[in-house]
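Supplementary Note 3. Input sequence used for the single-chain structure prediction.
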Amino acid sequence: MGKFVIRTVPSGIKFDLKATNGQVIATSEVYTTESACRNGIESIQKNAPIAEIEDQTAEGYETKTNPKFEVYEDKAGEIRFRLTARNGQIIATSEGYKTMASCTNGIESVKKNAPEAEIVEE
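The predicted structure, written as discrete structure tokens, is reproduced below.
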């Protein structure tokens, strides 16, 4: 089972969602309070399982409604995803992946791990 790891950073509080193998599969924005950070976790747990994938790397891609995983290519040419909540706010982002298949696996891992993940503090 995966876990959400809450940690303090110089500018506030953030979390990483880690897969069973300990690999970080999604990261949050920086929050000003632990309460806001925990609300972000709840939002991922609620939205990730029902979010569709919007592949923004495809020409003429179909726009999906929120919540959704937006898949895009970053400036370095890597494939990334961001999870948006119903209100369109970005609630998690991924690392860069070399291939679309790896990115899709990351999304599936978030969908699988987020709902049941334990929450721990570092």
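The domain at 3-121 is CATH 2.30.29.80 (PH-domain like). The chain has a mean pLDDT of 96.
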